[in-house]
Design brief:
Blueprint: H1 3-20, E1 37-38, H2 44-47, E2 78-93, E3 96-115, E4 118-142, E5 149-174, E6 177-200, E7 203-204, E8 211-233, E9 238-247, E10 250-252, E11 256-262, E12 267-272, E13 276-278, E14 281-290, E15 294-303, E16 310-314, E17 317-321, E18 328-337, E19 351-359, E20 364-365, E21 368-369, E22 372-383, E23 393-404, E24 412-426
Antiparallel strand pairs: 1-4, 2-3, 2-24, 3-4, 4-5, 5-6, 6-7, 6-8, 8-9, 8-11, 9-14, 10-13, 11-12, 14-15, 15-18, 16-17, 18-19, 19-22, 20-21, 22-23, 23-24
């Protein structure tokens, strides 16, 4: 099979991948806050490095976290990248514990060079995910006249999330400075439900006024992220690359709808025309490369969720506000080691990776700061070598993570992830000579 046909087959498999993967990617009760759980934006090459990316640039792989890196794409290459994640999560609260499993599509993207110093990329990635279904029961007391025990149960459920498709350009206008931008379109649905049921001796009490509330929205808007990179040569074998990104925050021109129903017949309907706002974001990173073998990087990013607005029910009023939200900070550090990319021994051409990351929450739960997240990662980049391809890579990453809040009353999450990504790197634009 030719390399062109191989890529065509992969492209035809994309709809199947999208259909079989659960793109909401969450069972977490914390996904009921804001736009949901933030999805990991890293790719196959850096998932095992804690997601560090802003200073990395390479001609044989795509780095959509900093679009300035597209200017480094090799002139002969067409790069196609896809990744999935298998996750097992343990949720624990007090003596209660439960496990959940998810399989998610992480990203699909492709890129190539348009002309010297100008690279192009396009793709798809999830931005946030909403997916939860849990309940809590409380004891109200005992009717001393009848001896009946009275309780009530609140059921919470939600589904949805935000996804993004983008096109991006990376340009090297002068010397070693590169700039770039991703122009994205985001869309998704937002559906959250609360229902309350009263019980007497374990049986539904029809005489009590049960409650149902629903908040729903269909979101669509633009998303623009810009970046720059500047490599500094420290010697014959060492390069230090500076990277920075900026994401434009703005109001999403999509309404949110609220519906409330009480069993006695009272209903409430309300709509907020512009209920959501994307946060402004900043990022800065460093990456050091030594002798084309060692690469180490560190990133710091900040998202201004404290200025973003989200629909909420506060004091039984439906409103859009930044209350209960705060700025989010994430730190990632990681690196990889490639013994000898030109060796005849396969294990010396494998890339060995390790990393870690830490992030603060962007929301509060009952006045308390939400869970902080810590990840440790490790993995490999396994080169694909055959008679038509010696530059493609299968990326495997293992992640252990923990989300825990500062108060014991909140749920703790521990998860294990297996990330598998495939980078197809084909010489589509090579000119062959026949002698």
């Amino acid at each position: 099979m030719s390399s062109h046909r191989l890529t065509l087959c992969i492209l035809l498999l994309i709809p199947t991948l999208c259909a079989t993967a659960q793109t909401n990617g969450s069972n977490s009760p914390y996904s009921r806050f804001g736009l949901g759980n933030m999805r990991d934006q890293s790719q196959g090459f850096n998932k095992a490095m804690g997601g560090v990316a802003l200073g990395f640039r390479d001609g044989n792989r795509l780095n959509m976290q900093n679009p300035a890196s597209y200017s480094a794409i090799d002139s002969l290459s067409f790069i196609f990248d896809v990744g999935i994640t298998l996750q097992n999560t343990n949720f624990k609260s007090g003596n209660n514990s439960i496990n959940a499993h998810n399989t998610t599509l992480d990203y699909i993207n492709a890129g190539f060079r348009l002309c010297p110093g100008l690279g192009f990329s396009f793709g798809f990635m999830p931005y946030t995910s909403i997916g939860y279904n849990f309940s809590e029961s409380k004891y109200l007391g005992e009717d001393f006249t009848s001896g009946s025990t009275m309780t009530y149960t609140n059921n919470y459920s939600g589904d949805g999330g935000v996804h993004e498709v983008y096109v991006g350009l990376g340009w090297n206008p002068v010397a070693d400075l590169s700039v770039g931008a991703n122009f994205g379109y985001i869309w998704g649905n937002y559906d959250q439900n609360i229902s309350q049921t009263f019980y007497t001796n374990g049986e539904t009490n029809s005489a009590s006024n049960g409650l149902r509330r629903q908040i729903s929205a269909d979101l669509s808007s633009y998303k623009i992220d810009v970046g720059l990179q500047y490599p500094i040569k420290l010697g014959k074998k060492d390069v230090l690359t500076l990277g920075a990104t900026y994401g434009i925050g703005h109001t999403i021109n999509s309404p949110a709808h609220y519906y409330s129903f009480v069993a006695n017949g009272d209903t409430t309907n309300a709509t907020i025309e512009k209920a959501f706002k994307l946060p402004t974001s900043f990022g800065a990173g460093l990456a050091w490369s030594h002798n084309d073998q060692w690469r180490i990087g560190v990133d710091v990013t900040r998202q201004k969720w404290g200025d973003a607005q989200m629909p909420q029910i506060i004091d039984n009023k439906f409103t859009s506000t930044s209350e209960n939200y705060q700025d989010r900070t994430a730190i990632a550090v990681g690196g990889d080691f490639l013994p000898d990319r030109y060796s005849n021994k396969y294990l010396k051409r494998v890339q060995y990776r390790i990393g870690a990351s830490f992030s603060t929450p962007y929301f509060k739960v009952n006045g308390h700061e939400g869970p902080r997240e810590f990840n440790v990662t490790a993995g490999f980049g396994l080169p694909v070598s055959n008679n038509i391809n010696n530059r493609s890579v299968v990326n495997i990453a293992f992640q252990w993570g923990r989300s825990t809040a500062g108060t014991s009353s909140l749920i703790t999450e521990n998860y294990l992830r297996l990330n598998v990504g495939i980078t197809f790197n084909e010489r589509w634009f090579m000119k062959w000579k026949i002698q």
